[in-house]
Amino acid sequence: MSPDGELNLTSSDDWDVVDCRPSAGSGTLARIGRVLLLVGSTDPAAVAPLLDQAELVAANGGQGRQLVRGYALLLGTATADTPDFVALAPHTTGLAVLVQGDASVDVNGDHISGRDSLAWVERLVPWPITSLEARVDGGAEARPHLRLGGGVIEAGGLVLATHAASSSSGIVLPQSLEVPTPAPLPDPVALAKSAPADPSDTGPLPATPEPEPPAPPAPEPAPEPPAPVAAPVAAPPP
Length: 238
Prior knowledge:
This protein is an alpha+beta fold. Helices cover 17% and strands 25% of the residues. It has 4 helices and 12 strands; from the N terminus they run H-E-E-E-H-H-E-E-E-E-E-E-E-E-E-H. A hairpin with a 2-residue loop joins strand 4 and strand 5. It is elongated, with a radius of gyration of 45 Å. It starts with 11 loop residues before the first helix and ends in a 44-residue tail after the last helix. The model is unreliable at 172-183 (pLDDT under 50).
């Protein structure tokens, strides 16, 4: 790969890590697996069939041959007007490009558009790919600080560039705004074992003795026996 900001895709492996930089505009840009889809509309009803086809191709490996055949079948059987769009996916020998309507792609200095065609235009551009820009909105403004790693957003164009490791999550943040990875929590058991002994620690506290049950009340003293009664003295005889 070439220095950051340039492009040098030599195989489908390079395609998997390329940066997709969206341009501002009134369109829809989707990156689903290995498929890039740029549609000149934000109407959900108009965009949905094109997104469904991109998801189908991506689910089956995102191969360029299947991309072209799938969209050709979709366009050939459509009963309503299809918005202008560009679809891209890698093939073994190059990059498959399909353009419908006034959408355009500039790749390796070659301008591809369906404006002057009665149907869609398809190309297989051999590797390497050294430059690629697509548009569905003539007023699309480049936003080189943005990256689309996956999903669907509103955009009027796209530019491909060499992948930068710092941009893998989308907008490149200043170093001061990056959130550091939190350190793992310490094991409380290991922490207890490694903690220094506290000099004031004199060992485990003695157990508090349980209170003794109260002594039973003393028995009442037995009553004293009554004093003996003296016998009466007999009177002397007359």
